[in-house]
Amino acid sequence: MKTLAILVLCALAVVCLTSDASTSTGSQPDNPAQDGVFVEREQASTLVRQKRAGTAPGDLTLTQLESLREVCEANLGCEDMMDTSGIIAAYTAYYGPIPY
Q1: Intra-chain end-to-end CA distance of the chain, in Å
Q2: From 41, 50, 72, 94, which residue has the greatest number of CB atoms within 10 Å?
Q3: Cβ pair 54, 92 in contact under 8 A
Q4: Whether 100 contacts 60, CB under 8 Å
Q5: What distance in Å separates the CA atoms of residue 95 and residue 100, rounded to the nearest whole number?
Q6: pLDDT value at position 42?
Q7: Angstrom distances, CA of residue 53 to CA of 15, 35, 48
Q8: 35-67 burial, b for 16+ CB within 10 Å, e for fewer?
Q9: Are 57 and 40 in contact (CB under 8 A)?
């Protein structure tokens, strides 16, 4: 009786393993590009645009502007220019491009 139970379990295991192997090899394409994960460069560039380095001055948040103001206040020349020309013009004149 034990031998019969072991043979039945082994037969079930063989059937399960062979059915999984046949379905997994048949459903996977040979070319990974057919999976739909990879996209051509032209199509990807229309879907996702890369963010350029730096932020446009109009897109800065209040926190970022305050950070620029604190840096500029440490330099008297920058602080004077900030009062007349604005924080963005003063910061870029004294410290270069905005790092955000």
Answers
A1: 76
A2: 72
A3: no
A4: yes
A5: 13
A6: 76
A7: 57, 33, 16
A8: eeeeeeeeeeeeeeeeeeeeeeeeebeeeebeb
A9: no
pTM of the complete model:
0.45
Q: Which residues of 82-93 are buried (b: 16+ CB within 10 A; e: fewer)?
A: beeeebbebbee
Token pair in block for residue 75: 């330099």
Kindly tell me the sign of the dihedral angle through the C-alpha atoms of 11, 14, 20, 23. negative
pLDDT of residue 31: 58
Per-residue pLDDT for 75 more than 80?
Answer: yes
Which H/E stretch holds residue 94? helix 87-95
Question: Which segments of 28-60 does DSSP mark as H helices, in order?
Answer: 41-47
Tokens standing for 14? 């063989």
Q: Which residue has the higher pLDDT, 14 or 56?
A: 14
